[in-house]
Amino acid sequence: MEEKKLGWAVVGLGKFATEQLIPAFSDCKHSKLVALVSGSPEKAERLAAEYGLEAQNIYNYQNYDTLKDNPAVDVIYIVLPNSLHAEYTVRGAQAGKHIMCEKPMATSVEDCQQMIAACQKAGKKLMIGYRAQYETYNLKAIELIRNGKIGKLKLITSDHGRPLKPDQPEDKWRADKKLAGGGSLMDIGIYSLQATRYLTGEEPIEISAMKSSTPGDPRFKEVEENINFTLRFPSGVLANCSSSYGFFEVKRFQAFGSEGTLTLDPATDYDEHNLTLKTDAGTEEIKLNGNNHFAAEIDHFSVCILENKTPKTPGEEGLQDIKLMMAIYEAAEKGQPVKVG
Ligand code: NAD
Questions:
Q1: How many CB atoms sit inside 10 A of residue 165's CB?
Q2: Atom of ligand 1 nearest to the CA of 129
Q3: CA dist 156 to 14, 123, 197, 209, Å?
Q4: Active site residues
Q5: If you average pLDDT over every residue of the chain, what do you get?
Q6: What is the CA(232)–ligand 1 centre distance, in A?
Q7: Do residues 298 and 212 share a domain?
Q8: pLDDT band per the 50, 70, 90 thresholds, residue 3
Q9: Which of 178, 311, 312, 340 could lock 304 by a disulfide, CB 3.0 to 4.6 Å apart?
């Protein structure tokens, strides 16, 4: 395929956008950064100078809709706090642009449905930034399980945790339910949930859950600290997952099969992945050439647009996680299992 590069605008120049996504464009073959949208002109100007962008391609939240008049921009990447994803996706689609939106897709099922509808109406594509599904080690784990390397899959455990630090700008809004939509589940427990879905290739049919927050901890006035959930899949596979804003950096999963165990720990780190396969033959550490999975997901969307294909993680994938996370919250509130699907 001819190496045409689509033009991308990044909306929200926070920690993730500036430290991971924007630098990743230098590793892209089909995507180039051409515009920035920010509430801070100083930050946008500094980054525009650093990445060689034209000053006329700096936008703010007020003139965002005028992106429609900029033919250099094909795709808008929304990297804002969670509850703002819906508004900026809808406005971006109305401006005639394809939309990549960060996880979690939104903070309600209704918002996800509006986002999908707006993109459909505009004839534009929508993708959710589930980077793990474009990352080499996670893809290898899926392949090994599908190829029966651990026999018949029985159980997945997945744990994601990190301490919430609301004194840091990127965590301030995460403690605010209006902006975050929920606590650790919406932010990092979603990785545990995603892993169970892409490792099994199935959708859960029943969920039970329990949540807790340390009494008196001011960080958790509005959002949950811990939530543990169990999923039942149609094949009989069970998954035990945890999500925490209390415990120290954990981003891992394990898949237990009738003939082996696969461990990826860390599984969803930005750049460190340790994959181990334990069978009767012994314990094997699997070393791969890791990829820049930020660049991989960005390029995947550009290629889908260029070839008019549906991305691997479209809006419907994001909607499914939001539905399941709402069911996890419901199960935790009720103290009873909830049927889904
Ligand atoms: P951040 O706080 O560092 O960045 C958010 C940006 O939005 C900031 O530049 C902030 O100024 C701007 N903003 C605009 N309106 C705002 C408002 N009303 N309140 C607060 N901020 C506002 O956060 P982040 O960690 O970069 O997260 C941004 C998004 O990216 C979130 O949806 C998060 O879930 C997602 N994210 C994804 C990954 C991943 O690995 N895929 C990692 C981190 C964050």
A1: 14
A2: 41
A3: 33, 38, 10, 16
A4: 103, 191
A5: 97
A6: 32
A7: no
A8: confident
A9: 311
